Amino acid sequence: MKVVVIGGGMAGLTYAVVSCKNGYDVTVVERNARVGKKIAVTGNGKCNIGNANVDKSCYNSSEIVQRVLAEISVEEYREFLRSCGIFTYQDGEGRMYPLSDSASNVVDCLRFQLEKYGATLILNAQATAFAKEGNGYVVTVGERKIFCDKAVLACGSPSQATAPDLIPFVPSNALTPVVPSLVPVKVRNMDGVLNGLRVKANVSLYNDGFLLGQQSGEVLFRDYGLSGICILDLSAIIARRAVARKEGNYIFALDVVPQLSEWELAETLYGRRGWQKDKLFYGILHNKLAEHIVKRTGNASPADYAHTAKFLTFPFEKLLDWSMSQVTAGGVSARYMDQRTFELSNGIVALGEVLNVDGLCGGNNLYFASASALCTFTKEQRKRAYSLS
Ligand SMILES: Cc1cc2nc3c(=O)[nH]c(=O)nc-3n(C[C@H](O)[C@H](O)[C@H](O)COP(=O)(O)OP(=O)(O)OC[C@H]3O[C@@H](n4cnc5c(N)ncnc54)[C@H](O)[C@@H]3O)c2cc1C
């Protein structure tokens, strides 16, 4: 069987490795000079390759997620990685990393498998068209026409990449709008004094007073707005709503003293009555954050200062752009594809981030990209592939 894979990212490489280990004649077409460019920048260069606690609640509510997670367990994913020479460890929160702690080493391992099992790589080459021909398909790459029995679209997303052109490959009814996700947010009320500060906080996202989501972790204040993993995760809620064409009147509310209740904090500040305002939060908050809270609250009671610290609000303005987003909300709607084969109505198989599936930070996106490819094979085919290293 001849297979053409469009896109040499995690999804395309996974599909290609399992295919060639099952004896298929595989060609990977990649528009970049090398495969795995995005894998190589993941996890700050360490590659957070998966998550041992992966769960459907980490993703948007696409029905295909359940199918993928039910079919490909974490153990099986590890088995696949090990068969490619990638050994992993996990941190206290279940985030999986390669033992090498090197994202580019992960790319080396996958590429080595393709070389070893005889796949053809066509680099610096953009696939531009796809059509049915006879019993098979033809993929156009520059001047070349490549005939195949199966074509796989694994061309990713516009997040930190040139936007892939999906029009030649995807029936238009199967495309949703796309929105940058896992992305810093521009907010109002930002104060230059906070720029660069990192603070542990509980963050709540509200829409017109309704709580949409909560995350805890490090918030990074920037001159334009807010960043940090918990902010990126909350940006996914806004992005998913935007894909569903839902606007909102969003507010980020930070509890920057999560260790104390509002009452305990107010009581402590009452005990400091008479202190100069710039010393009020000594030993509790970073001076810059204390300065901001005092400035915002004005001449007020200790209870008001405590309330500001427990409910520091930043009205949302916009999601930042593709150049800062880690993943894309929206894409090829799984509703229009065969839930078993991942084939669209024109016969192309769509995998990975090109689909309207996005996960929270923590390894969920690489996991889905790879697992979506794995679960299009039968158990026997997967087993055969894992038995070869
Ligand atoms: C900075 C950053 C950090 C991240 N960190 C993590 C992390 O730690 N953990 C995690 O799980 N996820 C992380 N992600 C998300 C994760 O990298 C992606 O979700 C995942 O790599 C998607 O894999 P993919 O194979 O679907 O797409 P991609 O990796 O985007 O691969 C698609 C490939 O297709 C090629 N292509 C596109 N169109 C064509 C065409 N017409 N012809 C030929 N080739 C084409 C592209 O050049 C690209 O190489 C991160 C993303 C970014 C940007």
Short description:
The chain is α+β, with helices and mostly antiparallel strands and 389 residues long.
Protein model, in words:
The chain is 28% helix and 24% strand. By secondary structure, it is α+β, with helices and mostly antiparallel strands. It has 2 domains: 2-178 and 328-386, 3-Layer(bba) Sandwich (FAD/NAD(P)-binding domain), CATH 3.50.50; 184-319, no CATH class. The strands form 5 sheets. It has a 6-stranded antiparallel barrel. The chain has a 5-stranded parallel β-sheet with strand order 6-2-1-10-19, with helices on one face. The chain has a 3-stranded antiparallel β-sheet with strand order 3-5-4. β1 (2-6), α1 (10-21) and β2 form a beta-alpha-beta unit. The site of flavin-adenine dinucleotide (FAD) has 37 residues, from α1 and α9.
Q: Tell me the domain tally.
A: 2
Number of separate strands: 19
The averaged pLDDT comes out at: 97
Radius of gyration: 24 Å
Top keywords for this entry?
alpha+beta; five-stranded parallel β-sheet; single chain; FAD/NAD(P)-binding domain; 10 helices; 389 residues; 19 strands; six-stranded antiparallel beta barrel; binds flavin-adenine dinucleotide
List the helices and strands and how they pair.
Elements: E1 2-6, H1 10-21, E2 25-29, E3 50-51, H2 63-71, H3 74-83, E4 88-90, E5 95-98, H4 103-116, E6 120-122, E7 127-133, E8 136-141, E9 144-148, E10 150-153, E11 179-181, E12 185-187, E13 198-207, E14 210-221, E15 225-227, H5 229-243, E16 250-255, H6 262-270, H7 287-297, H8 302-310, E17 312-319, E18 327-329, E19 349-350, H9 364-374, H10 379-386
Parallel strand pairs: 1-2, 1-10, 2-6, 10-19
Antiparallel strand pairs: 3-5, 4-5, 7-8, 8-9, 11-18, 12-15, 12-17, 13-14, 13-16, 14-15, 16-17
